[in-house]
Amino acid sequence: MSAVKGINLTKYYKNFKALDAVNFEITEGECFGFLGPNGAGKTTLMGMIYGFIEPSEGELILFNKKVNKTTMAEAKYKIGVIPQDNNLDPDLSVLENLIVYARYFDITGQKARKRVTELLEFVSLNEWLNANVRKLSGGMQRKLIFARGLINNPELIILDEPTTGLDPRSRRQIWDKIEELKHSGKTVILTTHYMEEAEKLCDRIAIMNKGKILVVDTPKNLSLKFGGNLEYVYLNMTEG
Ligand SMILES: Nc1ncnc2c1ncn2[C@@H]1O[C@H](COP(=O)(O)OP(=O)(O)OP(=O)(O)O)[C@@H](O)[C@H]1O
Ligand SMILES: [Mg+2]
């Protein structure tokens, strides 16, 4: 079963084409990675998949339904987002940030509180429940955003550079969490600049450059086809 399908997805920012007729299909339960240099269009594409950015051209199909306003509103309940930027509310505590976010998914009261406790344990931040988010280090805030993205127990999780800025141990902890999500049957979409992360987690990888997808394959096949490790393939494909 297909979880996400993009058909000729294109995005113009004024006259600049940030995404150029991108085609791909992500299967349910798969971990699919998008790699590419800064400005390649990854975040633009992630934003389209979670309904934040409207395509200028092309079509998006989520859970086998063509996306329009109604189907996107339904799909949002099944999607978890870990954005690239830190968009926590700096005036609120850890708990409040999660409770407010839960409300967007109609999760309130005891149910919300229970879910928040579970998630903070999941990312080892339970001792920080009542702390203002400003008191958290950058890496801890990243973990909190990760937890927040799981609040609605999503079927599809979009991770835009989930481990950027994390120390090596924290990065491995997040990798373990992503593996857990994969094993529980979730579909995961990931962008990263860490080749090791992509190789370890992704079943298939799309390499992007200048708004286009250049190639899609398993990490192993990419290495075999292009003769070298993933970093070598990436650097060769994206040069110029
Ligand atoms: N809101 C915007 N207005 C104008 N241009 C934009 C906007 N958002 C992105 N762009 C441009 O679109 C291109 C793609 O940006 P995007 O953020 O999707 O890249 P990315 O692959 O996520 O890069 P990075 O690896 O640095 O996160 C860039 O050239 C960027 O300058
Ligand atoms: Mg980005």
Shape by Cα distribution: globular
Mean pLDDT: 96
What is the string of helix and strand elements? EEEHEEHEHHHEHEHEEHH
Largest sheet: 6 strands, mixed
Number of strands: 10
Structural class: alpha/beta
Query: Tally the helices: what do you get?
Result: 9
**Percent range for β-strand residues:** 25-35%
Task: Give me the CATH architecture, please.
Answer: 3-Layer(aba) Sandwich
Q: Helicity level, as a percent range?
A: 25-40%
User: Strand order across the biggest sheet?
Assistant: 6-7-8-3-9-10
Write the layout of secondary structure elements.
Elements lengths: L1 E12 L2 E12 L3 E5 L6 H8 L7 E6 L2 E2 L2 H7 L3 E4 L11 H10 L5 H14 L15 H11 L7 E5 L7 H16 L3 E5 L3 H7 L2 E6 L2 E6 L1 H8 L3 H9 L2
Parallel strand pairs: 3-8, 3-9, 6-7, 7-8
Antiparallel strand pairs: 1-2, 1-4, 4-5, 9-10
The structure holds adenosine-5'-triphosphate and magnesium ion.
Adenosine-5'-triphosphate binds next to helix 1.
